Amino acid sequence: MNLDLLFQYIAAGLTYGFIYAIVAIGFNIIYNTTGIINFAQGEFVMLGSMIAISLHPFMPLFPAIVLAVVITMLIGAIMEIAFFRWIESPTILRMIIITIGLSILIREAALAIWGENVRALPYFTGNEVTSVSILGARVSPQVLWVVGVCSVTVLALQAFFKFTRYGWQMRACAVNRDAARLCGIKAKNMVTLSFMLSAGIGALAGCVVSPITYSQYNMGVPLAIKGFTVAILGGLGNYLAAVAGGIVLGIIESFSVWVLPSAYKDSIAIGILLIILFFRPGGLFGSKEELALKEF
Amino acid sequence: MAAILKVEGLSKSFGGVEAVKGVSFDVHEGSIKALIGPNGAGKTTLFNLLSGQIRPDSGSILFKGIPVQGLSPHRIASLGMARTFQQINLFHGMTVLENVMVGLHLHTKTGFFSGMLNLPVSRRDDRFAKEEAMRILEDLGISELAYREATSLAYGQQRTVELARALAQKPGLLLLDEPAAGLNIKETAELGSVIKRIRDSGITVFIVEHDMSLVMKISDEIMVLSYGQKIAEGTPLEIQKNEEVVKVYLGE
Amino acid sequence: MRRSYIHILLYLALIVGVDLLTHALGKSYYLTQLTMSFYYSMVVLGLVLLMGYAGQISLGHAGFFAIGGYSTAVLSTINLMPYKEKPIIRLLESMGFLLMREDLYGARILSFNPWIGVITAVVLAGVVAYLIGIPVLKLKGHYLAMATLGFGIIVYRVVLGTPVFGEADGISDVPGFQIFPGLSINGEMDTKRMNYYIASAIVLVLLYLLMNLINSRVGRALRAIHGSEDAAEAVGIDTAGYKLRVFVLSAVIAAFAGALLTHFNGGIGPGESSVMKSVRYVAIVAAGGMASLWGGLATSMVLNFLSLRGYFGSYDDAVFGAVLILIMLFAPEGIIKIGRRQ
Predict the structure, then answer these.
(1) Across the interface, do A108 and C57 touch by the CB < 8 Å criterion?
(2) CATH node for C2-341
C-alpha cells in the first residue's frame, strides 16, 4: 500500500471521527445537565444538514447553514420544553423510552418531508475532485473544513463552559442540580440551553460533513450509536476524551475495510461499545470510582 | 459466649479517604451489640462491608466461622445474616405481606420450572410463606396492614415492615442500621423492647443507632467508631465513663 | 388468583367469538393477521416479564426473534440432497431428523425436519441470551438499553450481510411445521382457521405458565429486584442469576415465536430483526402497563393487527413512536391501569 492511500484512509477516519466526537459531546452536554442519554442525538445531525440543504437554493451556503443551525437549536429547545421540562418523576426507563420515541418521530417526519432521497450540500470550497496537498498527500479541502469547524466548536464549547456565566451555571447544574437551584440558577432553563447547544453543534457537524458523507432521513441512528460508543470510550461527561475517542473509532472503522466485508463496518462500533460496556464501563480514561458516583 | 461474627483488621477507602481503618471486633452469639459514633465515622460503611454490599480492601470477616469477605450479599444472607437499611428500602409496588414473603425467599425453593407449572412445591411454598409472613406481622402487631402497599405506609410502620422482612429470613445475626431514626419517643421505646425480644428468641443483634438512651438501655456491649477507627469497646457503663468517647461526642 | 381463571374463560370466549364474527362477516382473511399478531404477542409477553417484573429493558428482542426464525428457516430449507449418501446424513435420516419434500418445481429437497429447526431455534437463542446476558445484565439504565440495542443491530447486520441468511431478501419457501399429523403451522388457505386456533392456544398456554410464574416465589423475587435490588440481595435473592434466567426465558420465548411465525409465513426477512421491531415490542409493553400480561397481550393484539392490516399506512413506525411518547408522558403505568383507576 502506498503512502497516499494511507493518508486517504486517515483523512476519512478523521472526518468521521470528528463527527462522532461532536455527537458524543452532544450526548455529554445533555447528560451532564439532566442525567439523560438523548437517543435522538443523531437526529439533530440529520436535521441540520437536511434543513441547510433545503434552504440552500434560496440563499448562499453560509447563511443557509447558520439558519439551519438556529432552526435545529429551536427544535432542540421545543423538544425539551414540550417533553422533558414538566415531567415530575423522571425515571431513567421513562426518559430512554421518550427519547427513543422522539427519534422515531423526527425520523418519520423527515421521511415525510424529504423522502428517501440521498442529498448533499455542495463542497464549501472547490468540488469533489479538488484537493490540497498536505505532507505530500492529497486531501479534499472539505476534510479540512470538517476538522477545522469541529475543532473550533470543541474549543468554543470548552471556552463557553470555562469563561461564561451561562457556562458556569450549566456546570453547576451538572454537579448538583438542587444546590444550583438554591444559588438562584434557573436549572430548568439550563436544561433547555443544554438541549439547544447539543442540537446546535450536531446540526453544524451535519452541515460540514454533508458534502462528503451525504445526508438521508435515516442517518441519525447509526450516528447516535457511534456517538454513544465514543462518549463511553472517553467516559461519559468528558469532552476532550470524546474527541480522542471519536478519532480512534473513525480511524479503526476506516481501516477495517481491509479485514472485514464493508457490510459489517457498522458492527465494529457496536462491538467496541459492547466490549467497553462489559469490561470498562467507566471508559478508557474514566475510573471505576468515578463511575460508582454517577447515576444511570 | 462464642463469637458469631469475628472481624479482623477490616479496611475500606473511597478515592483516598479511609472510611474504615483496620477495625477488629467480635459480636457474641445471643447478645445485642451497638455500634455508635459521630456522623461520618464509617458506621454504615462497616455495615455494608459486613453484609457484602461493598468489598473490603483488606481484613477478614468470619461469620459463623466462615470467611465471608468478598462474597456477594445474597450468599452472605444465605448463611444467615439479615439487615435493615438506614434509608428504608422496601420493595415498592408490593404489599406488606408480599414484602415479608420475599423475606422467606431462602426458606422456600420454587424455581422457574415448578413456578410456571404451578407444581405442588410452588403451592406449598406459597402457603407456607403466606402463613409464616402473617405470623411475623401479627407478632410485630401490624397484621392489619398486610394488604396495604408497603411504601404507602407511615414512616414508622415502614421501619417495622423492614424489620419483619429481616426477621422472616430467620437470621442468626440481624444488622439494624439506625432503626429508631424518624421514630417518636413512644415508638422508640416499643422498638427497644422488640429488639430485646428478638435477642431473647435467639437472634444476635448488631445495631447502629444514634439514640443514646435506646442504645444504653438495650445493649449488652457497645463499640465506638470515630473517623473509621475503633476507639472504644465495652459495656454501656464503661462506654459512658470512657474519656475518649466523651471527647469525641462533646469535644469536637 | 381465581380471577385469572375467569380471564382465561373470557379469553376463550373472545377467541371463538372473533372467529365466528369474522366468519359471519365474510372477513375470515382477518384470521391471518390475527394469527401473526398472536406470535408477535408471545414476544411481548416474554418482555412483560423482563421489563415489567424484573425491571430490565431490552432493545434487542427482535434479535432473538430473528435468531429463532432464521435458525429454523435455514435448517428447514437447506438442501442436503447432494450429500444424501454421506453416512452422517443417512444416520440423521434414519433418526427421523430429516424430511424429504418437493419444491415448487418438483425438485426433491432433503432438509431438516421443522421440529429440529424449532428446537434448534429455541436452544440457540437460549445459549446466545445466556452468553450475552452475563455481561449485559451487569449494566443498568442507559448502558443496558444501549448494549441490548447494540446486540439487536449486530444481529440485523449479520442477517443483512450474510449469504446463508439471504441478505436483504431473507429466506423464503420455508415449509410448514407439522406438529403431529393433522396439525401443522403453515400459511395455506385451508388451514387458516386451524392456525388461528393453534396460535391462540399457544399464547394461552404461555399466558398460563407466565401467570403461574409471577404469582410464585420466583415472581415475587423478580418484583423485589425491580423494587430494590439492594434489598433483594440482602434477603438472599441471587439478583444476577434471576435477571439472567428471566432474560434467557424471554429470549427463548421470542425465538420460539420467531420460529413459529416463520413456518406460518413461509419465510422471514431481515426486517424482523430491525431496531424498529425491538422498539415496537417495548412500545407495546409500555402501553400495556409494563407489568401486566393481559394488558400487554391486549395492546399487542390490537396494535399488531392494525399495523399488519396496514391501517397506519406509511405512518406505521411513527404510530409506534407516538404511542411510546404519549404513554410515557401521560400514562407511564399504561393505558389499562389508568382506565382501571378512574
Answers:
(1) no
(2) 1.10.3470
